[in-house]
Amino acid sequence: VQLQASGGGLVQAGDSLRLSCAASGSIFSITVMGWYRQAPGKQRELVASITSGGYADYAVSLKGRFTISRDNAKNTVYLQMNSLKPEDTAVYYCNAKKIVPFMEYWGQGTQVTVSS
User: What are phi and psi of 91, to 5 degrees?
Assistant: First the structure.
């Protein structure tokens, strides 16, 4: 499975960005897709995930500002980020999981920088 993320960039506080991640290759039985982020000097953390059935889960601190969605026909997951804050600055990584057997895949990361 290959994951191609796009949509990052430099924005000002309060702006919005939409990240996209397209999956290709052996995508059969991908169950969960999601986004993680890693800020400098910090551990990678879950931002949001969504199952093939559309159930979404969010980091508590981000719920309400970020929205994850998925287009199964296009094998693409999106992350709509609104009201961005400087503390949202990080490299955002796309993630995909197969459950049986468990396999996990990562995209290359896309930089999001929010200036104050």
Answer: -90, 125
Rounded to the nearest 5°, which phi and psi values hold at 87? -70, -5
The pLDDT score that the predictor gives to residue 100 is 85
User: How many of the other CB atoms lie within 10 Å of CB of 101?
Assistant: 6
Per-residue tokens: 4:
């191609």
CA atoms of 116 and 74, how far apart (whole Å)? 35
3-state secondary structure of 116: coil
Cβ-based neighbours of 69, under 8 Å, separated by 6 or more? 50, 56, 77, 78, 80
**Residue 21 CB coordination number (10 Å):** 25
Nearest-CA neighbor of 79 among 108, 103, 46, 44? 46
Question: pLDDT band at residue 82, thresholds of 50, 70 and 90?
Answer: very high
pLDDT in tens, 15-54: 999 999 999 998 888 889 999 999 999 999 999 999 999 9
